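for ur thesis appendix - LysR family transcriptional regulator. copy paste whatever u need, i formatted it the way the template wanted (i think)
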Amino acid sequence: METRQLRYFVAIYEHGTLSGAAETTRIAASALSHHMSNMEAEFGSALFARKPRGMQPTAAGERLYVHAKAILRAMAAAERDIRQAGGEISGEVSVGMAYSAVKAIGVSLAKKVLADYPKLRLSLTESLSGSTLMHLMASEVDLALVYNPPVDPRLKTEAVLEERMVCVGKKEIIGDTGDPIPFRDLLELPIILLRQGVSARAIMDDVGLLKKIEAKAKLQMNSVQAISGSLLAGLGCVIGTKLFMQEHLESGALHFRPIVEPELSRTLYICEMAERPATFALETVRREILELVADAVHIGIWEARLLSGQSDGRN
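the 3d part is after this line
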């Protein structure tokens, strides 16, 4: 299998027709069809189902598309990296960040790249932590800031910081006091929780306690906007950080209480795919992210304990 065949395959997959792919690749549709037949013979599996109105990928085609995008992306990054060795940092780096990370350093990272690396193209994606990890695993981003990622040999991770979790909600829901709330009392409140699964892992490190919360949660959502609106409407409370709903806490619309017995925490990791080759651009952005996180913690924008540089036992 050749690189050009992968490019042809991706073009057909994304256009859905041989004619559309032919226009993009400037290769005759008959030649593209011939290449696909050769690939299918090599793999021993059909990659597309030929339909009257186009090409529909099979299960094998869907899987190959994920691999092909990662391979082509890595090859393009390698070419750029070698060309810029010893020169000005250039190329494209995509970063996925959990919602809280974007609030703390997203704009600062964009300003830094624009000011110091004019030839570097930064792509920044904001999502809930579980979705951010999926973007990384699908090779849609190069770096990801993720809370409590699962142990996976495909990932290279470094613990960056640890955050204390608090209970956030309206005073009539969580109490008009700043006193800490014991975990057992927290379970009696109408908790709004991130959807179960990978997203829910971002709430805290302790999986056992998380399962107790999941069992008691009244609502489960996978949208920051929906959670925010529900909190302001007095539908319940969330376990989060002060940064998560900072504007509403500062305005007095929402209130927070520390959680005790036990205290709850979560850990932020910077993650990348272990087998993906590093580039000068990627290393530069990674370094800038860690420096910006440290600055945000030191000046109080991000209330957390720095862990960057400590071994996390995951690599």
